[in-house]
Amino acid sequence: MLFKLMGTDQVVLTAAKVGVESIAIGEYVLVKHDETDDSAVDGSSDWKAKVLEVRALDVEHVYIRVSWLNRPEDLAGGRRDYHGKNELVPTNQMDIIDATTVNGRFDLKHWTEMKDIDPDDAFGKEVYYWSQTLDFTNQRLSGRPGADGARSKPSQLRSQTW
Amino acid sequence: MPEQPSHPPVHFTNSAMEFHSKRFTILVTLCHTQEGDAVSRLSLSKSSMTCKLIGKPTPDLIFTAAVAPLRRCDSQRLGPKHDALKMPLPRDKLSSSRVRVTRYFTTREQNSRIFDSPASTSSMKQRKGTARISHHHGRTEKTQPGSRRSLAASFEVSGDHSAKLRKLLNDTDQPFKVETSSLSRKTKRNGLKLHVQRGLFEERLDVQYEVNPLGVWKSLRGYKRFTGRWWPWCYSS
């Protein structure tokens, strides 16, 4: 293993460690989306997706079919006041990606509480959650759960920039 | 102990022929065309129960073939066992073997379609150099001398497909594309029904999708969980 001395007591592992890991259907994964060698796990900048299918020719050719989970700022309307910091918007937009771009896993919760509680506080800062979804085929966003328990009317997104 | 022949001897019965290998004896029910020609050929390894039939390019003909192991025999006691090996198997064992052979060819045909050139679209075509056993004369006719295919050769064909697939995946940055459409849209392309993805968070997200190229995608083995030394973890502290 290669270590780089960053100071008197800080050590950074600079070499990628290829270990025995696994990827399974139904898991939520972080996807690296640039070519930089610095592939440290960064949940805030990595893309997020749900694994729907895993196929492989051999250990060097593993592909996964995923559906994407968008950040609120990825939506046409952008992030709104009601969007939480760790909120994601699941979609049915799918892609098949190389499994080597997977940078880790994360947990996803479904926010269904109607009470006026901040989900970021309820789940913690490291847990992502979703409360509304985006139908990619018609660009319609589902309603959010309101304070009275009823969902607001779905809204149509006029344009998307993916 | 008699010397093992280079090719398994063939014994004909009323409707079947027996192949004796070093460790296994295989009973093959012959396939007949309407003209009464037997066109099946069996090759088998000496250490495996895997069988392969090569026949004329008529899938239904091959699918009707029945292959069944008669009995496993020890190579050192091959001679004394020969008489007993001629006993036919019960019908139920023939049936189960028939299923196994059918699946083998179905898979092989699907894989071959991906890469075969238009001139050889059917993997069931009579390959040059394959031996053909004549039912009527009880001897082997070779279309080309010295080119008899073995079971190992069949794995080479599979390996060749794998190599082509690997090259295709290596040369393409994004080898697969997924197109989605609404479930309400009854779209069919090339006569193929689109796949449906359900269980995506909410029922409203159920969607039809199409993977291109589907043949290459389907030729990869599917996993519920894939484990391997491929995960590029990086740690920092």
Task: Summarize this structure briefly.
The complex is a heterodimer of chains A (162) and B (237). Chain A has 162 residues and is mainly β.
Describe this entry's structure for a reader.
The complex is a heterodimer of chains A (162) and B (237). With 162 residues, chain A is mainly β. Chain A has one domain: SH3 type barrels (Roll), CATH 2.30.30. Chain A is built from one helix and 13 strands. In chain A, the strands form three sheets. In chain A, strands 8-4-5-6-7-10-9 form a seven-stranded mixed β-sheet. A three-stranded antiparallel β-sheet of chain A has the order 11-12-13, with no helix packed on it. Chain A is globular, with a radius of gyration of 18 Å. The N and C termini of chain A lie far apart (38 Å). The N terminus and C terminus of chain A are likely disordered. The N terminus and C terminus of chain B are likely disordered. Chain B folds into two domains: 149 residues, no CATH class; 45 residues, no CATH class. Chain B is elongated and about 70 Å long. The longest helix of chain B has 25 residues. Chain B starts with 9 loop residues before the first strand and ends with a strand. The interface between A and B is large, with 53 and 41 residues.
Order of strands across the biggest sheet of chain B? 1-2-3-6
Largest sheet of chain A: 7 strands, mixed
- The 3D shape of chain A can be described as globular
Counting structural domains of chain B, the number is: 2
CATH level-4 homologous superfamily of chain A: Bromo adjacent homology (BAH) domain
* Range of helix content of chain A: under 10%
Order of helices and strands of chain A: EEEEEEEEEHEEEE
CATH C-level name of chain A:
Mainly Beta
Largest interface: A-B, 53 and 41 residues
Largest sheet of chain B: 4 strands, antiparallel
What gross morphology of chain B would you assign?
elongated
Counting helices, strands and paired strands, the structural category of chain A is: mainly beta
Q: What helical percentage do the residues of chain B reach?
A: 25-40%
Q: How is the largest sheet of chain A built, in terms of strand order?
A: 8-4-5-6-7-10-9
| Secondary structure tally: strands of chain A | 13
Given as residue ranges, the uncertain stretches of chain B (5+ residues, pLDDT < 50) are: 1-157, 230-237
